[in-house]
Write a structure and sequence with these properties.
single chain, about 170 residues, two-stranded antiparallel ribbon, 8 helices, globular, disordered C terminus
Length: about 170
């Protein structure tokens, strides 16, 4: 799910609210401990992500989108559970160094290999724009992130040509 949502952080998944607009776009403030600036992220929930969300949906009366908040006492317990499961996957697959953030790294690396602009990748990851113009005067077009995410997902699921291979 993290990968299908541009590498969304586990803490942001845990606290993701049921606020989806008519265009299936979700908006949330990225949780980042060392940031002094509020950073809003807006993205369309792709069908692959929606399938997973529907599988792990919270109760109708819960404010959060996913059932994690009801199932786990705290985010720390949820993160511990995820870490344990990722270690199990790493052991089964023989991958070393597998972490919670591989979805973020993988999404960004694949997006870069598909020649997606660094600013779009950065926005998709929820990074704060450090430039005065970018953070103050320029309204970012979030459809760029949606298009980038769709390209990354299609590439990974073999729905497009491989990068660098002729059509």
């Amino acid at each position: 799910l993290s990968f299908f949502m541009c590498g969304i952080n586990p803490i942001d998944l845990f606290f993701l609210k049921k606020e989806i607009d008519k265009d299936k776009r979700v908006s949330f403030t990225r949780t980042k401990i060392d940031s002094k600036k509020e950073n809003r992220v807006k993205m369309t929930i792709q069908p692959e992500a929606m399938d997973i969300i529907n599988r792990y949906a919270s109760a109708p009366d819960c404010e959060y989108m996913l059932m994690f908040e009801n199932k786990y006492v705290s985010y720390e317990v949820f993160k511990s559970f995820l870490s344990k499961k990722i270690r199990e996957i790493a052991k089964l697959t023989g991958l070393t160094g597998l972490t919670l953030y591989w979805a973020r790294y993988s999404w960004a690396t694949i997006a870069d290999s598909l020649d997606i602009q660094e600013k779009t990748i950065s926005k998709g990851l929820g990074h704060t724009d450090k430039s005065l113009a970018g953070s103050t005067y320029i309204a970012f077009d979030w459809s760029r992130v949606d298009d980038a995410n769709r390209k990354v997902i299609d590439f990974v699921l073999n729905r497009t040509e491989k990068v660098g291979q002729p059509g």
